[in-house]
Amino acid sequence: MKLSLKKIAVALTLAGACAGANATTTPLGSLSAGAPTPFQGTVFTGGVFTDIFTFDLPANGGSGYSVLNFPLDIPGVGSFNTVFSMLSLVSNPDGIVGNGDDSQVAFASGGQNGLNALSLTFGPTAAGSMYLAVSGLANGTFPGGAGLYSGAISVTAPVPEPGTWAMLGLGVGMMGFALRRKMR
């Protein structure tokens, strides 16, 4: 009896801890180059799902996106599993998800049978509001069907503007000219 109460407590703890993470839209804030920005999703409703992660990208930086299934088996209780069907990067100029100004700029597809991981890259791009839509199927055996996944967004350093390159070239040229005069 003690073992089954322990299993039920673990299941209820997981359900309670993850219930808040099952939100449809999750803001990630302004992203910058450097360490990847992690995110995660938990689906307890089973079946088909789409989670949205909103963020702002800096100007002229490239970006990479990835999601990975996090399979988990709790003996005697059930399992969590996610199969991805699509990862979509969407430009969202006004920051409001789902209205007429949203436009998909990149996507990766899991095909007919889906995948346990998806990734895509995009950029460089103008600064702006974007969102990542993660779609798939939660098909774990946990009561009602469930899935867990994690992901990350990486932003690369901005590409310098042509004017910056011109100034760099001019500065190097002037240093060369000064060195040449000094050596004479």
Summarize the structure in words:
This protein has 184 residues and is α+β, with helices and mostly antiparallel strands. The chain contains 2 helices and 11 strands; from the N terminus they run H-E-E-E-E-E-E-E-E-E-E-E-H. A hairpin with a 3-residue loop joins strand 5 and strand 6 (78-80). The chain is elongated, with a radius of gyration of 23 Å. The model is unreliable at 1-23 (pLDDT under 50).
Give the helix/strand layout.
Layout: H1 2-19, E1 25-30, E2 37-43, E3 47-57, E4 63-69, E5 72-74, E6 78-80, E7 82-91, E8 103-109, E9 117-122, E10 128-138, E11 147-155, H2 162-183
Parallel strand pairs: 1-3
Antiparallel strand pairs: 2-11, 3-10, 4-9, 4-11, 5-6, 7-8, 7-10
